Amino acid sequence: MIGDFDSIAGSKRSLHVQVAREIARKILSGELAQNSVIPSEIDLCDQFGVSRTALREAVKLLTSKGMLKSKPKVGTKVVERAYWNFLDSQLIEWMDGISDNDEFCCQFLGLRIAIEPEACALAARHATVEQRMQLSEIFEKMCDIAKADVFDQAKWTSVDTQFHSLIFNATGNVFYLPFGNILTTMFANFIHHTSEDGSTCIEEHRKIYSAIMSGNSEKARAASAAHLLTVKDKYPA
């Protein structure tokens, strides 16, 4: 039966988060279709082996992410995909293994191309002394990893994620902050995926870094755009 769930009784994770994750993955995979009514509260409590309190907290969590909506005499329905909060870090984590990785990364790259060059330009103008010092430390680590005899992908993913996250945090614009804080998970997944062949694009990163450190916003914008277009070439048109 569509919508059947396995019991999570005894799970070490927070029960309502675990319930929310399992329901979300059914929604994300399409097993629970958009505009469909999910199983009743009694059925779900029985399937998951949890209390009504835990289930209701899970529904509240998914409602806050735009995935569910409860209506009197109707039940709890799956909201249309257009309203799901794909910028939510938990939602990104829950998508792991469900969506086609190439397609998802390509879509995320499209978003980065639209906003990241401007973020670099803003960082060049507004980064604080402390943030520039942090960027220098991170870039030095990137150089060490790039020139090592054996490429350590895990370390590269970590420092490259820090590099891009810090740039968004250094823009001085609060609307860019989510991309530096909330999207750390997606950056890590994306960078891991695009560096699987050992590619670091260290020279492209060097141009971005140098432009930001020198306060040249135009060069920072251009360097970021060029870097992202290089990454785009790795994906089929």
| CATH-defined superfamily of the largest domain | GntR ligand-binding domain-like
The amount of beta strand, in percent, is under 5%
Helical/strand content category:
mainly alpha
Rg, Å, rounded: 21 Å
User: Number of helix segments?
Assistant: 11
Oligomer: single chain
Output the CATH topology of the largest domain: Four Helix Bundle (Hemerythrin (Met), subunit A)
- Give the SSE string: HHHEEHHHHHHHH
How many strands, what sense, and barrel or not for the largest sheet? 2 strands, antiparallel
Total beta strand runs: 2
Low-confidence stretches: none
From the N-terminal CA to the C-terminal CA, the straight-line distance is: 38 Å
**Relative helix content:** 55-70%
Q: What count of domains describes the coordinates?
A: 2
Which key phrases capture this entry?
Four Helix Bundle (Hemerythrin (Met), subunit A), Arc Repressor Mutant, subunit A, 63% helix, 2 strands, mainly alpha, 237 residues
Walk me through this protein's architecture.
This is GntR family transcriptional regulator. Pfam families: FCD (PF07729), GntR (PF00392). Residues 13-81 form the HTH gntR-type domain. Keywords: DNA-binding, Transcription, Transcription regulation. It comes from Shewanella inventionis. With 237 residues, this protein is mainly alpha-helical. The protein folds into two domains: 15-86, Orthogonal Bundle (Arc Repressor Mutant, subunit A), CATH 1.10.10.10; 100-232, Four Helix Bundle (Hemerythrin (Met), subunit A), CATH 1.20.120.530. It is 63% helix and 3% strand. The protein contains eleven helices and two strands. The chain has a two-stranded antiparallel ribbon. Helix 10 packs antiparallel against helix 11. The relative contact order is 0.11. The model has no long low-confidence stretch (mean pLDDT 88).
